[in-house]
Amino acid sequence: MHVLVTGAAGMIGVKLVARLLAEGALGRRAITRLTLHDVVEPAAPAGASVPVETIAADIGDPATAARLIAARPDVVFHLAAIVSGEAEADFEKGYRINLDGTRALLEEIRLAGEGYRPRVVFASSVAVFGAPLPEPVPEDQALTPLTSYGTQKAIGELLLADYTRRGFLDGIGIRLPTICVRPGKPNKAASGFFSGIIREPLAGIEAVLPVSEDVRHWFASPRAAVGFLVHAAVLDGEAVGPRRTLDMPGVAATVGEQIEALRRVAGDAAVARIRREPDPTIARIIAGWPRAFAPERALALGFRAETSFEEIVRAHVEDELGGRLPT
Amino acid sequence: MHVLVTGAAGMIGVKLVARLLAEGALGRRAITRLTLHDVVEPAAPAGASVPVETIAADIGDPATAARLIAARPDVVFHLAAIVSGEAEADFEKGYRINLDGTRALLEEIRLAGEGYRPRVVFASSVAVFGAPLPEPVPEDQALTPLTSYGTQKAIGELLLADYTRRGFLDGIGIRLPTICVRPGKPNKAASGFFSGIIREPLAGIEAVLPVSEDVRHWFASPRAAVGFLVHAAVLDGEAVGPRRTLDMPGVAATVGEQIEALRRVAGDAAVARIRREPDPTIARIIAGWPRAFAPERALALGFRAETSFEEIVRAHVEDELGGRLPT
């Protein structure tokens, strides 16, 4: 089968491609061809055993979708997106990439016709929800985004459901929890510290904590996120029914619980590298975010995440640090 | 103030314009100018005391929004839409009018700039909800449309909220119940019989009832719908908060209750004009629709509908039949 990944140069995209190549199959079907798209040329994976084509193109350019769908991939992982902060800073760019780009992809699939009906896995986000929210957020909670990014993802979910209902494609949307621990450098995202307070101490570096320890949030590891995507690609669409987007499982943890998990994995010395520096702006942004979910549908459909924040920390140590802890 | 009505030639549009001209004001502000848009030339109301411009243009044509917004109307009633059945039959036309047309209007307002921030009243629909649904449907129920029309209205709601949050306009969406009794000829809409079984007997004509008497649905009169629109134009946006679209109040009534209301207003002879002719297709479509709401927010904000189906029948007799009952 032919698999297309948009946004393949992003953190999750790279890990997804590595897993697809390592397994060589999606479910029982062998992967025979990979197309990797991003706005920058995705790195062609070394030693891939199947043909890999890389395409650098702006998904907001109407010609891009036609180019991506021309070869009629069997599975499309649609990860390409402008992130939350940028979509808020640049209104037009956010709508052009996150809404028009997604719609162009769905339209190109519809117009391909001749029985073409690929599985489309759409990476949505818990940013489709905004306060006030019940805790945990139940299935069938109204989408009440408080950002343009969340609005664009919510619209993508609605389009995915309608195109699926009309029989143009077979879509599954997954609302990803905050991915933690994100590898790489610290960034300026409001959510950055959730990863930073684990990643930096494990690398022997000081981290800043801008909120109080009772702040609670909803997490899954990069490894779990890749697992969600792969599972969404192979699961039986009939079992999902008309509501095509699912809250993904995750771990609800307070910052205090994050820190205690870090202590259990790496000791007091690691925890001592966390410096408190309250930031009311970040605290206010995060107060609007969902804190926990009751993802009963996804669990019943076989989606699995970590079950404790300590598991999330250990996944990071294994996957990013080669199992080595700071000394 | 300058008021723009899109879809002004439609049943609700005509009644809204008549009320605006009769009252001469929206809240405390005098109406000094009216612009009436539709895809066919709206009839210019006779004897209007303020300048009335009529514009016949396709709202799906990108040039139309620019033409409508150029004069910077203070209030925009956005009623123009392809109806449910047509949006389902013609996928591209539905998206072009109901999604692209709405977005073009919002974009034109955003791009006008220079502090322009009109009140935009968006006519949404209970079609944004699809079964299975709790009864009554609570506030904050997830939008789960089962038609392309419902999907397009749900997307319009999301855009309205984001454009409002960003300060580009001041939007209020209202989810209209099924409007009953619709005046005019019988039509082929699946919901047509809800009006037909009242309207036809009151006109001395036979009506067909395709479903059983225990079917329950959510209604408001055309008069109430116009009242919702006017109230949405004048209410305090701050009081609405970030969730800009509201379930409108209405009357939950079974078909049996409709018929009993008809009997109380017009007697057994009218009821005898209803002929039962079960139609499983219509029954199946209607089974997916919401049956009752708990519109607490709208009621708290001062929206008012009829409180019994008998009131709805009497509104029809007063507004459409000059108070005359069949003899």
UniProtKB/TrEMBL annotation, chains A, B:
Gene Ontology MF: a single term: oxidoreductase activity
Gene3D superfamilies from the UniProt entry: NAD(P)-binding Rossmann-like Domain, UDP-galactose 4-epimerase, domain 1
SUPFAM superfamilies assigned to the protein according to its UniProt record, in alphabetical order: NAD(P)-binding Rossmann-fold domains
UniProt entry keywords in alphabetical sequence: Carbohydrate metabolism, NADP
Matching InterPro entries: DenD, Epimerase_deHydtase, NAD(P)-bd_dom_sf
UniProt xrefs under CDD domains: Gne_like_SDR_e
Domain NAD-dependent epimerase/dehydratase: 3-205
Identification of the protein by name: NAD-dependent epimerase
Source species: Salinarimonas ramus
